[in-house]
Amino acid sequence: MKVKDYLELQEELKSNSRKIDAHYSKSENTIEEYNNIQIVKNRNEEIEKEFKIIPTVYVSFYIGYRSYYREVRKIGKSYFTHGEKMTKNRGGYRDITEIEEITNEMKDEMLSDLYYY
User: Fold this and answer.
1) How confident is the prediction for the chain on average, in pLDDT?
2) What does the pLDDT average to over 79-85?
3) 3-state secondary structure of 76
4) pLDDT by residue (tens digit) across 20-59?
5) d(CA 116, CA 55)
């Protein structure tokens, strides 16, 4: 999958989620509206299946002076977390490095760092 395709699918997934939310916020819905939402839900499931095919890797990175560890999707040389490309300009991500696994010590480090903020 190419980055462009991933971003388009991610945008479609967000749009579909908004449609589903709007559907459930209405007090009354017609049978036709219900059927349309079922189609949208099925499409979301197809997109999620496509996302599961994308390889994931563990990375360490910094935002400001705080270090983080996360499982992210990797497409080509690009990393994506929560549907967003991890870049210095967009999210402040820096020093992104692939690691073998996230250890308990790393999790403890992130939790202990929360104490100060």
Assistant:
1) 87
2) 89
3) coil
4) 888 888 777 788 888 888 999 999 999 999 999 999 999 9
5) 34
Structure tokens at 35: 């059927």
Q: Which amino acid is at 65?
A: Y
DSSP-assigned letter for residue 103: -
Give CA–CA dist 92/62, Å, rounded. Answer: 8
Quick one: which of 69, 72, 77 has its CA closest to 51?
72
Task: Round the CA-based radius of gyration of the chain to a whole number and report it.
Answer: 18
Within the chain, strands assigned E span 56-63, 66-75, 78-81, 84-85, 93-99
Closest CA to 55 of 69, 76, 86: 76
Domain borders along the chain are 3-53, 56-114
Tokens 């499409």 found at: 43
Alpha-carbon dihedral angle through residues 84, 92, 75, 70, given to the nearest 10 degrees? -90
Please answer whether residues 94 and 88 qualify as being in contact, where contact means their C-beta atoms are separated by less than 8 angstroms.
yes
Q: How far apart, in whole angstroms, are the C-alpha atoms of residue 61 and residue 42? A: 35
